[in-house]
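I am hoping you can look over what I have pasted underneath with an eye to the fold:
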Amino acid sequence: MAGAWSSAKLQQWVRLPTAWIEAGELRAFRWKAECGGQETAALLVLTVIAHHSDGSTGVAKLTYDELSSKAGISRAMVSAALDILDDRNLIDRTVAGRGTYGLANFNPAAGWAKLPAKGLYTGNVVAAFQHLTLRNKNELAALKMYLLFAAFRDNDSNYAQISYDKITQRTGISRETIRPGLSILAALGLVHVENTPSSAIVAAGSMATFNRYRLAHLDSYRHAGTTGRAGIEAFDLT
């Protein structure tokens, strides 16, 4: 079974339903004393399920051992993660028999974002996930932002462009946690963070700047240097 889901079988990207992210449901993933790691594990497992889901049905078939190794977490954490995802109606367990997981509200025609897949794997595991400890609230913030950026990525520019205020509003992450979370994403090679001039002129007469975020291993040929959009205006997502 394990060999059937090697990275060689993975697509470059997969479809991730986004209605729940757009509705602010990332806010439900909160760091809690003594069990915050389970919240982080839930997002890791959701990502792995999405990576291995069928492109037309949104259904993945994975064993506990596969989920454990690919996400870099224990079987106990896998169990807790699946309970969280099930309770929050983000997956449908045993949708096509034992060991199957369906992405909730999956529609291959609409309501999804591109989520990087194959490029994240070394062998049969997500390389970046192996470095997470599940003991740090900043890791949870990082994963919440990762999925947020995927959901709000502009397909033409290949960037997500969103202010700190909107990140806080949509994810529940405190402003002081955003920068450490971004540092984790950058260090793990999951997101490229760019500080870009805006055409807005601040009162002192200098050029304002803003951050924008590009997911690694996703349409990597499309960026500011190739699209000619290096100086696009900053905007807030509503």
Notes: The two ends are 44 Å apart (CA to CA). Residues 36-51 form the longest helix (16 residues).
